[in-house]
Structure formats: structure tokens, C-alpha cells
Amino acid sequence: MDLVKNFGSLVFSDEVMKNHLPSETYKSLKKSIEFFLPLEPEIASVVACAMKDWAIKNGATHYTHWFQPMTGRSAGKHDCFIDLKNGNVTIKFSGSGLIKGEPDASSFPNGGLRNTFEARGYTVWDCTSPAFIKDKTLYIPTAFCSYNGEALDAKTPLLKSMEVISTQALKILKYFGDEKTTSVIPNVGAEQEYFLIDRAKYEKRLDLKICGRTLFGANPVKGQEMDDHYCSRIKIKVSDFMKELDERLWAFGVCSKTKHNEAAPAQHEMAPCFESCNVAADHNQLIMETMRVLAKEKGLACLLHEKPFFNVNGSGKHNNWSLSKNNGTNLLEVGKTKEENIQFLIFLCAIIRGVSLHAGLLRMTAAHAGNDRRLGGNEAPPSIISIFLGEHIFSILESIEKGGEITGDELHEIFVTKAKTLPNFLKDNSDRNRTSPFAFTGNKFEFRMLGSSSSISFSTTVINLIVAESLECFAEIFEEEKDLEKAATKIISETMREHKKIIFNGNNYSKTWEDEAKKRGLCNIKDTVTAAQELMKKENVFMFEHFNVFSKGECEARYKIALYSYCETIAIEAHTMLEMVGKEILPAINNHTKNVCDLFLKIEKTCGLQNKSLKNEVEFLNSSIEKINEYKEKLKESLKESENFKEIKEKAEFSRDVILKNMENLREIVDSLEQIIPKDLLKIPSITEILHKV
Ligand code: ADP
Ligand code: MG
Prior knowledge:
The chain is of the alpha+beta class. The protein folds into four domains: 3-153, Glutamine synthetase, N-terminal domain (Ubiquitin-like (UB roll), Roll); 162-191 and 316-547, no CATH class; 192-315, Glutamine synthetase/guanido kinase, catalytic domain (Creatine Kinase, Chain A, domain 2, 2-Layer Sandwich); 565-691, Four Helix Bundle (Hemerythrin (Met), subunit A) (Up-down Bundle). The chain is built from 25 helices and 17 strands. Strands 9, 10, 11, 12, 13, 14, 15, 16 and 17 form a nine-stranded mixed beta sheet that branches. Strands 1, 2, 5, 6, 7 and 8 form a six-stranded mixed beta sheet that branches. A two-stranded antiparallel sheet has the order 3-4. The longest helix is centred in the last third of the chain and has 56 residues, at 552-607. The chain is globular. The relative contact order is 0.11. The site of magnesium ion has 3 residues, from loops.
């Protein structure tokens, strides 16, 4: 395969645009993309025509406005390019069709922003993310908003936050004499973990099919105790999947770069090259979708749930975030001159301050029912947000705080020397480093809390905004204090004084850290219900409003959706458990009990012997059946009770405290029986069988 030629072959890329558009149109479009300018309608018509011709030439029959509603996934309605005009077939795709769509999208979550009877919603072309062809359909990335302009999706706030951080970062760059840079871009590289299991086994488990995770199942006889899966030889079937995944993603313009086996059996990871965060967010959706579909085609199932199996590592998604000038210079990279290094420290401080002031909000961006099962389990960061900087950078910041000068050359020398060894330093200490939820890794920050199924959009939106807010505050200091170095020293020492508490270079998994974090007054938010409250906190609503990203109403809508989705996830899981217990598990246990009873009686009748162990087993099975029935009823009752709550917060708390507890009790008793129920009776594949099949 011609790697370069194949890359982006299904994308209406910059190069395709250049070749297919009149040069004036191309220039105007590029300007809109770079400067966040609205698109002229005439330009849209010309682009639409070129896009349509290119798509049809490349086999497309349909087009779709592809958007990301507040479900965490993507959606779109597909329209054919052909139309009837006076009884004749024609091809139709206009500029307005490219720019705006109106899906009947009343069924998507809106948190009360729209009522179904006034459910007008618009999709609006996002010209900053390239269109592509998939399944003979031209996918046009779009934002999705209500008739009144409220954001109903993940993209709109992300785009707004990019504009905000660009504006604020440019202000800072000007103080450093940079008049050339015209925009500043947040970049993201999102590492994606996943499980790959045998399809036939997957199909036999209602819990995996409906909920994406196993709701029952004894611990596997072999998990990850031997550390023999991480980066081990990739099995042929998995390798075959990965190769085809690469090829498909490359054609979509996704630069799938790294692949390896992860810690748990049947767990893997892929990492794409980083790119502008908006495109990275779209691409991450595309990656997850392609993984699911391809796995099915290959007789496999791809699990993107954060915790598909109890007691083996779950899957995360690392959001690697950095900031670059439009010429590609990374602002989180240590510089060559004293000024460049001061600038680097300023951006670093903006991140420290932002994370410290909005730690709870950042935590919230990783909160949902699935990820609650993973965070804090010594496989992912704990629920406490902190920043890892590494001792060297920390000591430089600390010395400035203590009144030390930013000694140009010296700083430069120490810094560069140390920075050169920094990647090695981090690698040598990867145990400690890997435990941090927000780690500086040389020239980017790695937010490691996200769950594998999450969209990266909201966490990126929040990172962009909290950093922008600090940059805005720093710009005021630069404005007041004309001397660059004095202003920088003030910013650094103030940031350290007020926000040093968020920096932690030690082991985040240790119990002592939890105690230490408490002493430092850091928030430790353990579950989604608590995390969701962060969205409504004064300082967070203020920030969203201040930057015109969300109104208070939009914050509230997202808050409600987070809780609603939490309740529904748990309710669906509980119903699935009841279905499995009623239709599969209890009948199997009953049958087994009957068989043991029969055997006991037969031995007594034919041989006149009393088999004590069989009698004990019957007694044990009998009491277990009673317990299962008891827990089943309790779970049913709690589900019923949850219907009565009027307030979503109360319902969510009840789901967390009562329903989840009842589910755990039911699971525990069922799991304890798994190893004694014969395979021909309990037809659900065990976790051991699932993890060690592919
Ligand atoms: P690790 O597993 O050690 O974290 P990987 O190589 O698997 O490292 O993943 C690193 C991810 O970080 C990749 O997606 C990569 O593209 C991304 N990345 C690298 N540099 C930057 C950067 N400057 N900004 C954002 N992301 C980056
Ligand atoms: Mg990583």
C-alpha cells in the first residue's frame, strides 16, 4: 500500500480543496477557518458544489450533517444527493444545504432547553473540521444548536473555547513582542484503550450487549497478575484487526500511530498523532465508531466501557493537551532564550492556576456512571485532581516564588540541560508519573482521568477555558507592570503562593496522598452525582458566562443531563441484572439444585447411604436461592421507588446509595455460586473464558 497516497484518500482535505476550488474561494475559506470568521453564503455555494462533485466521483450517494448531541456519541440523518424536479432526477446539494441542516432532533437530550413541541434544532457546518466519505456517505461535521442558539452538542462549546483561548493567548504573546502569530491552537492527542473479545461469547451475554460491561461474573482465574500482557506479542487475530483499523483510519485522515497490548488480558490501546482539538474530537468519535464496526465484521466485539470486567484494569482515554502558535511552535516547550523561557513559565502558570481554581469542574468532565467504577481503583488516577510537574520545573518555580531572580542564562542553562533529560527522567519514574491525573510530560499535559467511552470535547473545552481565564488575568498584570520580567516574577510567585497546593509529584495511588490532599484542602470527588454539582458552582458558571460559552441555563441543562444519564445508566443495568437472574441464572441454579437433590436421594435409595457433602451442598444452594430471591426483590423495589423522585438530584443520590448497593449484593451472591454451577446449565460465558479466548 502507498501509505502516503492512501492517507486521507476519503477526505475533502486542504489539498483537495485547493485543487477543486477557485483560488479566491479557497483563500476566503481558509481565512474563515483560521480567524473563526463567519462564512460568506456565496463561498458556501461554491464549496458545496465542489464538495458534492468530489464526493460523487468518489462513490458517495448520500450526505449527512454529522453532529455530536449530548449523548457522548455522534449522530446524523442521511440524505441522498438525488432529487426529483418536474419528474426528472437531478442532483441537488446547495450552499445552504452545506451550511445549515434541520434534523428532526427532538429526541436528543437537551436538559430542558427545548420542548418537543418547539423542537427546532439546527446543524451548522463546521468548516474547521474536514468532511469525509464513509459508507458511501459524505460526512459533514456540524455543530448542533437550538432555534434560540443554545448549544445542544459537544462541538459548539469546544469551538467557542478555542476562539477564547486563542484571543487570550495572543494578548500574552504581544507582551513578548510577538506580532506575527495570528492564532493560537489547543492541540489534543487522545490515546484510546479498548477490549477486544470474541463476538460469539459477547452475544451470549445480555449485560455486555446492553450495558457494555459484565454485571455478573466471578474473578477470572488469571487476570493481569503476571504483567505478561502489557506490550506483549500481539495475537494474530488482534493484529489483523489493528492493521485494518489503521488502514481505514488513515483513509479517513486519522493518523493512527501507536498500537500495543495493554495491562489486562484482551486489552489494547491505539494512539493517533495529535491535531487541533476540534478535529481530534471528531476523529476520536470516528475512531470509536470504526473500532466497534470493524470488530463486528471480524467476529469480535470492541468494548469501550470503562470497566467491562470487575477486578481487572478498566480502560481510559488520555487527553494529551498542548498549545501552539499557528506556525506550529509549541508554547509548552522550553525555549532557547531567556524571554522564551519566561513565556514558557507564564503559560505553565496559567495552567497551574486554572486547574487549581477549577479542579472540581475538571474532575466533573470525567464523571459518569461507567468511569465511577474505574477512578481511584489503583489502575487510574484517584478522584483528586493534582498536577505533576516533575521536581526540576517545580524547583525553578519555587525558587522564583522565594524571591530568586529569573536568571536568564542560568535558568536557560539549567533548564535546557535538565529539560533534555526530562523525558528520560519521566520515564524512569513512570510508576509515580503514571498515577497523576494531570501530568506534565515534557511539552504537553496529559489529563488521564477520562474514561474510554467519553468524548474528549468537554474536558478539552474546560481546559481551554480555565487556561484562558488565567491568561486574561495575567494580561492585566502585564498591562499594569510594564517591565516584562517584573510582571512575570509577580505572576509566577503569586501563582505559586496561591496554587502550589495543586502540584504533587509523588504517588497519587497512596493512601497518604489522600490524607495529604485533604490537609491541602483539595477536593476529592468520588462519584458522578457529587461531580455534577460542580457545573452549577458560582465560579464555574461565571467563567462560562464570562466567555460567552454557556449561559446559566445551558450549564443547568448539562447538569441535568449528566444526572439523568447517570440514573438511566444504573436503571438499565439493574433491569438487565433482573432479566439475567430471572431468565438465565436462577433457572440454572434451580436445575443444579434439583440434580444434586436427585443424586442425594438416588444414593440413599440405591445404596442406603447418606452423602453428607451432597446434603451440605443442597442446603447451601437452597439458602443461596433464597438470598438471590430476596436481593432480587429488593432491587425491584428500589427501582420502583426511584420512579417517585421529583428532583433529579435526589433520584441520582438514591441510585448511587441504594440501587447500586442492591446490585452489588445481588452480584456478590450470584458470583459466589458461579464456580459450582455446571457449564451445560449456566450458559453465560465466564469472564475467564471471555478474557482468554481471542
Ligand atoms: P504515552 O503512552 O507514554 O502517554 P503515547 O505515545 O502512547 O505516549 O501517546 C502520546 C500521545 O500524546 C499521542 O497521541 C501523541 O500524538 C500525543 N502528543 C504528543 N505530543 C503532543 C503535543 N504537543 N500536544 C498534544 N498531544 C501530543
Ligand atoms: Mg499516555
